[in-house]
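User: I'm putting together notes for a lab meeting next week and I want to include a structural view of one of the chains we've been expressing. I don't have a solved structure, so I'd like a prediction I can at least talk through. The sequence is below, exactly as it appears in our construct file.
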Amino acid sequence: MTDLATIDLQPVIAGQPDPLLFATVSGAHLYGFPSRDSDVDLRGVHLLPAEELLGLREPEETRSRMWTRDGVEMDLVTHDLRKFVRLMLRRNGYVLEQLLSPLVVHTSGTHAELVALAPGVLTSHHAHHYRGFAETQWRLFGKTGELKPLLYTFRVLLTGIHLMRSAEVQADLPTLTGEVAEAPSYLSELIGAKSAAEHGALEPTGVARERIAEDVERLRAVLDDAQAATTLPDRPGERVHHDLHGLVVRSRLSAAPA
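Assistant: Thanks for the context. Below is the predicted structure for the 258-residue chain, given as structure tokens.
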């Protein structure tokens, strides 16, 4: 299993062409089921200069870089601050997980402000994000029989249920198994099997597919019920729109040359 503490990422951070406002670890390490050969997924936000947004050329709002260090595959994907905030307001659970990841590689005052504003963008409709993500991963599991998409299926269903009930974004599957009462008891066994191989198959675990299918269907219904009962609003309030707009403007202006 990749030890994140032994990887020096600062040269990568320092080498970015524009200021990096934050970078966190996402993917299997964040979700609590990395394997020995898992790559390291870094996600974050950069800040383009104002002229890049005002000129004729299309701004580079999303950047990606892949490389290998000490035999570990790594990738860094960042969005410009404006694009990232727009994704936050579109009920995108994925970017909220990146923003709120406890595995922080690089941070800033703007990162802290985004984290503080994140609760204001949570809505009941985030359940749709997790429901759709689960359907995609469930179909992929049906095609491959691999543990990875199966664990993703359970992870996103449980994240969605937990979010609807607690208004908290929790992406770590081992934590979710202890906080969501309906979580299947065999998930820890599947996590252990996945840790041995990134593309390990279900069959050696001895957990029957029929039982898994029943549990996935049951958790879909639990997510539906949790959404129906949630106290989360239908849409972000005007206040958080105003505050996020102000944050984007202030960040851009503060980076402008005097």
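A couple of points you could mention at the meeting. Residues 126-229 form one domain. The chain has two domains: 4-122+236-255, 126-229.

User: Perfect, that's what I needed.
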